[in-house]
Design brief:
Two copies of one chain form a homodimer. Chain A is an alpha/beta fold and 218 residues long. Helix content of chain A is 22%, strand content 28%.
């Protein structure tokens, strides 16, 4: 059965982006420090059309994610950094150039309808305006018997968590305190929710904590 | 050289206590879920004068901490849950009864001076009114060639971190989302601070992430 998996890099103090994100520095001040482990990994570089990188445990975690992901869901801000109508959005085709690193259909949550955007390398961006459940349904249909990857940002992760739609959560804990920024979980204001640890992989650059999220009745 | 080590249990969403702490439920709603791994460990039970428990990796982490700790620093709220003058504080002798689980000198940060409290089992509570540096200095002197353990709460940890006085940080990440409560790091509003991962120990109940905190010039 197709599952919804969230995988995201977080600082030890809980941020998925630093403060003051801009078009030049979309991850905010220090935000790149969350992803250094990925930038150094061969599998990440390969998916981004880059050469080199290390074939280590971190690279395997990314490789596994790419191999098991049949579709991606993300928020509008993660896609372009913008908000509101698309016309004035300088990153209306996303951050990633002509050949984005996803190589599967990507479903972008937005309030502003637009045509599907077909990119090189089997990535297509589908814009979903009727909410998180509709986006998940479309992504599941597109994923076949692979998983749907929820890649962020924080607000979208919170929405899927609160709706009880998330099956698995893998947090890549980066060894850094950002001090401020976008908090992944913020204050969810849910009842305490126990998770099941299903795997921990540690390297000097990052700790990958994987959890099963139990079904909830809310 | 005597180091200052912080060891604290934190939920995946960054809380060291749940919301609405009371005298009856000092860890707030769901806060006990942060410490279940410890309650089940033989070494924790032993230090609390209880029998039973498991001799597992988690128990060894606690055993190591007890063995290497020569003095403890904590905040007033962690000591008694109260604030202000001592007279009306119903937990003015601490939470732990006649034989507290520390078995070394404990330095309690407070704005309200009082005499040292000598308990059974080699625990003594020393009340320090002249700030975090003075408390650390006194604790270091008492610790001999062992470490000083900074055991919380969040506000005190933040103060030592911001002052650049912390040498080591061990976070016991409990597999639970509390949804609200006392945030360990909150928004420190420091420049991004890279940490060095020195050890990761994982069990089904908790992941122990240990970091060296680099020296800072602030």
């Amino acid at each position: 059965m197709t599952r919804l998996r969230c995988e995201i890099s977080m600082s030890l103090d809980g941020f998925v982006a630093g403060p003051n994100p801009t078009l030049e520095e979309p991850l905010g001040v220090g935000g790149n420090l969350l992803h250094e482990w990925a930038f150094a990994a061969a599998s990440w570089r390969e998916s981004h059309g880059l050469e080199g990188g290390e074939r280590n445990a971190d690279s395997e975690v990314i490789e596994e994610s790419l191999r098991t992901t049949g579709a991606v869901v993300m928020g509008r801000r993660m896609f372009s950094g913008g908000e509101g109508p698309w016309e004035p959005d300088p990153r209306a085709e996303g951050w990633w150039g002509d050949n984005p690193p996803f190589h599967v259909p990507v479903f972008v949550l937005t309030h502003h309808a637009r045509q599907t955007l077909v990119m090189e390398g089997d990535t297509s961006f589908h814009f979903v305006t009727d909410g998180i459940e509709a986006a998940l349904e479309q992504a599941k249909a597109a994923a076949g018997n692979q998983d749907v990857l929820l890649s962020g940002g924080a607000s979208v992760v919170q929405q899927y968590l609160k709706a009880g739609l998330l099956d698995e959560l893998q947090i890549h804990v980066a060894p850094v305190l950002l001090g401020d920024g976008t908090s992944l979980f913020d204050r969810l204001e849910i009842d305490p929710l126990g998770l099941e640890v299903t795997r921990v992989i540690a390297s000097p650059s990052v700790t990958h904590l994987r959890f099963r999220v139990p079904a909830r009745t809310t």
